[in-house]
Amino acid sequence: MSRILDIPKKIITNQTRSTSRDLFDHPVLTVDISMEHDSHAGLVRSLSLLDITMIGIAAMIGGAIFNLVGPAMHEGGPSLLIVFLASGVISFFTALTYAELGSAFPEAGGGYRWVKEGLPRPNAFISGWIAWFAHMIAGSLYAVSIGDFFGSILTSVGFAAQYGGIPLEKIIAILSIILFTYVNYRGVSLTGKIGNGLTFMQIIIIIVLITSGIYAMSFVNHDWAVNFQHFVPNGATGFILAMGITFIAFEGYEIIVQAGEEVKNPKKNIPKAIFLTLGIVTVLYIVFTFVFLGGIDSTKIGKEVWQFIGDNKDVGIAKAAEYLIPYGTTLVFVGGLVSSIAALSATTFSSSRVSFAMGRQYNLPYIFSSIHSKYHTPHFAIIASGFIMLIMASWLPLEQIALVAGVMFLFLFTQVNWAGINIRRLYGHKLDYGFKIPLFPLMPIIGIICKAGLAIFLLIYNPLSWVIAIIWILIGFSVYKLYISKKEIEHYAPLVANIGPAERKSYRIMVVFNKKTIEKLVTIASAIAKDKDGEISLLNVATIPLQIPLSMGHRFAEPIMKTFEDLKNKPGFSDHRYLVRLSHDNTEAILATTEEQGINLLIMDFFDLKNNRKLLSLATCDILGVNIKKEFEKEMDHVVVSYDKGRHSDLGIEIAHAFSKTVGSKIRIIRGVVESPEEERDILSRINEKMFDLDLRKVPVERVYPTSSEIIKDILENLNRDPEIVIVGAGNQSEQAFSPRTMELVEKSKYSVFVVRDSRFASIKARYFWQMIAPRLKENRVIYKIYRSLYRFMPVRKIPTDEEYFGSKM
Questions:
Q1: For the chain, first and last CA: distance in Å?
Q2: Model confidence, pTM
Q3: Cα–Cα separations (whole angstroms), residue 15 to 37, 273, 342, 372
């Protein structure tokens, strides 16, 4: 099969170009085009520290302080005080990561943007997909709450319960979404002013209720301590259940960082806003719960206070307020309405910023990134998010689906903590931090454990929430594989040529072109491919200067095409696949190709690989870096594996085994003895198990004992005796691309060295998943009926028979 792809050429006039690099040192081409300038102008930094703090408080209080305290107290009793404290502490670990990355990288997108830089594909799309959906669900719920609150007020004064068959609550919910979509459309300044006013109002109502509770404890209910006797009535299970119920109240920092591109002095203000919000809200929740428990006389209600509030569930606080202050129920009712309005404003803002950032990165259609010429807001993203929220508020059973929001945020926060660790390792020396996490990486690791633990608990407590979340993620993954990934790659690394056999094999090796070593790299790939019954692809990337758009880079690909044509004519090269890409960033092109082609093993010249930490960290395939010396052909007769205790050395034994089977190389294994006798015995057992799995027999394992403090000298002395290929593991990559020991072996070895890295994900490919589920999808009756129905509207002469349908390849 031969496929030459054409890149659309855009006619660009009246433009000036400049080049720069973003905070992650990615090349950025800035093109000022008069036609496009209005629709893609930058966002305006107009939000102060007060503005974003109010946005965070509005999102974290929401209606939860009035609606969730009752259900949580039903499970946790008076220990809800400690539940809120524990939730605040658990959230603090993830807040540290948000503060660090938000200060160093203040752009719209927040957690999604960081996951894109710190984790392999398609984590970024999935995190954005999750965040966008979760924010919209939350916004729809707040809109429904506004409809319930305000609708009850209107019906109590004589308004009809329905208009045109539509419930009044639904009409109010829809109008509220339209209103706040318009407010966000007009600009963040207006959004900030309205949000600040609403947040101040809800804080005032909460302070009035707290003051009333303190007064009751001081002058009315002198025996208030009795209300705390049965502190944990339902034990540890009830305590953790209460934490799971109230966790949704501690997600405001995700909304704060969504505003990063519109914040004044973000390096200082974003961390301050995150910690102020978390501290203020945690204190408010604890004090609010304390005074409601202590301010009510249990003899007047006939049961323990926590039972009274818990038994009334979401209206428990409203009913309890009647015993604290005159018209207390009405005051709570108004507070809940105001809080829901403020939270709707905040989530409308945040959901649009997630989709805006995804559009800018081509993870959603690019129109999502357009900026209004007058209001400087992402107008299409706002309208699209508002429209979806309107649909969900109108038709979907949000009460059930809302349980998914907490699980999705837990997934997102786990990814962000993980990405934060990788970003510090990859780019820490390049980023200008306004705040850095202390005790790194311990803090984000604790954050990962806490969030994963809560997610697992929700799986046990409410498995349906996980089912719905997984279904949504699978839908997103399908959209990504079928459409988004192709568009993203077409933009950042367009494929100019894809020439090769039509039949694809399961195990796929890709060799990155290097003019000096390409033939030897292909020889190595051929030996492994023969053992695995795999195929070989050769990739050559035409790196385009930053000032030249990729759409105008065809002339850079022409010499590459000529080189590949000459290579194909050589013996043994005609059956391989040849790929040519254009890109401003060679690493991005390689990563994109490994994902697109489902590569299992990437082979490169070690010189091109040794300083590329990003490629080593984000690639989802095994990597083989080759440092070739002059006597390579002679060395192939013997292979030695220098075995450490990592997984990379196991992959080294597999590659040595492939050479033994296909080339006839003799294998030996050496082990530098540096651990305790017990650990060395365990390592030797692991080597024996690996050889048994591969059916390797009579392979000598030599132990090298140190004669000085540096074992590497003794290992090199052993390796440099006779010509042979040396295989070593990548080693610990926490501080640099390869471990110092590995680098010293490569630099001082007389003979060729293979450096191997086991990715853990090399055997997990999307195509395997698709091949597994495709037959089952075909057999599904609903899908079959949809398939038959669609064909009736297609301009074809004949609808395929059942035999053709079930016999085709999906």
A1: 19
A2: 0.79
A3: 10, 39, 43, 20
